[in-house]
Design goal:
about 35% strand, globular
């Protein structure tokens, strides 16, 4: 299920109980998945390194509007190192490791990426909506 990760949901619930909310991450990084990563971050398969050996890409997100945020700059993975299918993206707190914060399906559905093809997402293409 796309949306807030279990980590973020628990942090919010603890904040409501009076516990300090964790400090914001130093940056946000996009990971690509074949399958839903699930709230626990245990589903799907992260395929980021199949696309970009250097891993995840830093991405800024704009101000919320109608309970939605989206990337405010192009997210460019460069030319794909290998072929794979991508169905979801996730936002992590670090370029490697880190904590999954949110996930969502790609707006256009499954994308097949062929080796050598450019992989990028225009402004607004990676959207997260809270219910």
């Amino acid at each position: 299920m796309a949306g807030k990760s279990t980590y973020l949901e628990n942090a919010l619930l603890n904040w409501l109980r009076g516990t300090a909310f964790p400090a914001p991450p130093a940056g946000l990084f996009i990971a690509l998945f074949n399958g839903d990563p699930t709230d626990a971050g245990t589903g799907g398969q992260e395929v980021t390194t199949a696309v970009r050996p250097d891993g995840r890409v830093a991405a800024p997100f704009g101000e919320p509007a109608n309970k939605t945020i989206s990337n405010s700059a192009i997210v460019d993975f460069g030319n794909a190192a290998g072929g794979t299918d991508v169905t979801h993206f996730a936002v992590f707190s670090a370029a490697a490791g880190g904590t999954m914060l949110e996930s969502a399906p790609l707006t256009g559905g499954k994308q097949t990426i062929n080796a050598g093809n450019p992989v990028s997402f225009p402004v607004g293409a990676l959207a997260i909506t809270e219910d």
